[in-house]
Amino acid sequence: MKKIIVTGCSQGIGLFVANELTKLNYDVYGISRKKPKSNFKFNFIECDVSKSDDVKNVFSRFRKDKEVYGLINVAGVASMNLLVSTPDETIKRIIETNLIGTIYCTKAIIPPMIRSKIGRIINFTSIAVRIGAKGESTYIASKGGVEAFSRSIARELSPANITVNTISPAFIETRLSSGLPANVKKTVIERQIIESECTLVDVFDCVKIILSDESKKITGEIFNIGGV
């Protein structure tokens, strides 16, 4: 059975995607700092993706596993605040979780995917990168970094039959977006080509497309759900 690791599985997109993947005959491993409070059907592993030692320890169990097929990097944090008012510790936490955590997990999954001779890596960015949302400069920097990293690593891994793509959901109601003022939400949605909120199902539909056999030649791309 193909194995897929999903980061940020404690809630929101990560929790939904990990649970839905178990229905598609995947052996799913969800990792996050905290165990989900709601019901889940996947294998849970505690891990802080911003800590190199944590990631190395968790992924070491997959190092010689030839069934590893996918890595979905969903783990992320945000803080809606002007840069001048953002504490240095918050800046560090956003960059270390969103960007460096994605890099750590991607690096750790490469050896087993090479053994599997196939792989799908899916990273997550944000519509905020396209529209330059006010008060999210550090978050946007971290997600812009994820996009650039994904394009580069896609070239590195293509000879090993491993694809790397990025999903950029349209505005979606999650814990990360819950603190946005109503006028900001409205502005974001109006900047989309399809002017409606994104749903968890929309995101999962995109994940399924990227994981499919038919997507084997699609790599280095950004999937903008809702368009922008």
Protein traits:
about 230 residues; alpha/beta; Rossmann fold; seven-stranded parallel sheet; 7 helices; about 15% strand
Structure, explained:
It is a single chain. The protein is of the alpha/beta class. The protein has one domain (3-224): Rossmann fold, CATH 3.40.50.720. The chain has 7 helices and 7 strands. The chain has helices spanning 12-21, 52-59, 88-116, 128-131, 137-157, 182-191, 200-211; strands spanning 3-7, 27-32, 43-46, 68-73, 119-124, 162-168, 222-224. The chain has a 7-stranded parallel sheet, with helices on both faces. Helix 1 crosses helix 7 and helix 3 (88-116) runs parallel beside helix 5. The protein is globular. The N and C termini lie far apart (37 Å). The model has no long low-confidence stretch (mean pLDDT 92).
CATH architecture: 3-Layer(aba) Sandwich
The gyration radius over C-alpha positions equals 17 Å
Strand content: 15-25%
Average residue-wise pLDDT? 92
Structural class: alpha/beta
CATH T-level topology = Rossmann fold
Q: What's the β-strand tally? A: 7
Tally of separate domains: 1
Query: What string, H for helix and E for strand, traces the elements in order?
Result: EHEEHEHEHHEHHE
- The CATH class: Alpha Beta
Which runs of at least 5 residues are low in confidence (pLDDT < 50)? none
Q: Spatial order of the strands in the main sheet?
A: 3-2-1-4-5-6-7
